[in-house]
Amino acid sequence: MSAIGDYMIVLWGFLLITLMGIGGFFMFRKFLKKLPKEDGRSKMDWEEFYMEKTRHMWRKPEKELLEDLVSPVPELFRDLARHKIASKIGEIALKKKRKIITQDVLIEGYILATPKRDHKFLRKKLDQKNIDVTPYESFFEY
């Protein structure tokens, strides 16, 4: 009977250490994003900057397309993903001196803001929407 209790204590301890390690990892990542870079602004500061500068540039069809593209992201992380991707789209729109965010800028920003492992899902989603990915192939290479 005591052997089972000992194993349960060891398993419980292992579970606690594992969960604390996972939580610590995500907290550390957030901490790193908040550290100022050479220009004095953090990655999160730049994301907020681009969101605020381009908020008025979004039209309804582009907002709906962005929502549709981020729909495969688990709901727990969807807001963060949407914010990160929308800020990258805004950055590209400002660099290209666009007055509004178009579908081309949206798709380019989405490709550049997402990791390569997610590009397969993006291609599938764009194919479902009958959007040709050929003009964006160069962005998939980054």
Automatic annotation (TrEMBL):
<protein>
    <submittedName>
        <fullName>DUF2621 domain-containing protein</fullName>
    </submittedName>
</protein>
<keyword id="KW-1133">Transmembrane helix</keyword>
<feature type="transmembrane region" description="Helical">
    <location>
        <begin position="6"/>
        <end position="28"/>
    </location>
</feature>
<dbReference type="Pfam" id="PF11084">
    <property type="entry name" value="DUF2621"/>
</dbReference>
<keyword id="KW-0472">Membrane</keyword>
<keyword id="KW-0812">Transmembrane</keyword>
<dbReference type="InterPro" id="IPR020203">
    <property type="entry name" value="YneK"/>
</dbReference>
